[in-house]
């Protein structure tokens, strides 16, 4: 019986130590936080994000709207270079069951939030691509990209 208690205690302690180590790792990890708002005028309030190759970003999308999500939903999809954005957005319009991300293009999407409505938020964490250049991010809710709901992730090497 005593052995069992000892064993249980040591397992508990090991678990605690592991938890502390993980917590410490989380604190030291360098993740830059960015909040982007989507509003009823079909725009993002942040249209340029500048970052360095390999940087870790945590982007939170906040939607401000009193309209139902079915009428005014927003997401953020950050897309790889070289993708025809019109094709991607057009294909994604009908991909409601996949968060409005066309499955055929999904491997060319660096990161994407859920499609959310007024009062909701969603956060994505991703590593900025190693290749410098401009990466477009868009809202794939039907019509929003064509209404101007887009921005640029500009990746440049540190000076
Ligand atoms: Cu939108």
Automatic annotation (TrEMBL):
GO terms for molecular function: copper ion binding; electron transfer activity. It comes from the Bacteria. The keyword Metal-binding applies. Residues 34-155 form the Blue (type 1) copper domain. Coiled coil: none annotated. Keywords: Copper, Electron transport, Metal-binding, Signal, Transport. InterPro entries: BlueCu_1 (IPR000923), BlueCu_1_BS (IPR028871), Cu-binding_ET (IPR050845), Cu_oxidase_CS (IPR033138), Cupredoxin (IPR008972). Residues 1-23 form the signal peptide. This is Azurin. It comes from Rhodohalobacter mucosus.
């Amino acid at each position: 019986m005593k052995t069992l208690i000892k064993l249980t205690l040591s397992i508990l302690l090991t678990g605690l130590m592991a938890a502390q180590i993980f917590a410490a790792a989380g604190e030291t990890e360098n993740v830059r936080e960015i909040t982007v708002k989507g509003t009823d005028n079909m725009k993002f309030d942040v249209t340029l994000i500048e970052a360095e190759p390999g940087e870790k970003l945590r982007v939170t999308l906040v939607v401000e709207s009193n309209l139902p999500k079915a009428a005014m939903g927003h997401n953020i999809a950050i897309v790889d270079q070289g993708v025809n954005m019109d094709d991607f957005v057009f294909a994604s319009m009908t991909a409601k069951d996949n968060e409005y991300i066309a499955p055929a293009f999904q491997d060319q999407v660096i990161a994407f939030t859920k499609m959310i409505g007024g009062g909701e938020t969603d956060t994505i964490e991703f590593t900025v691509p190693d290749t410098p250049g401009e990466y477009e991010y868009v809202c794939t809710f039907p019509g929003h990209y064509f209404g101007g709901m887009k921005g640029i992730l500009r990746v440049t090497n540190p000076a």
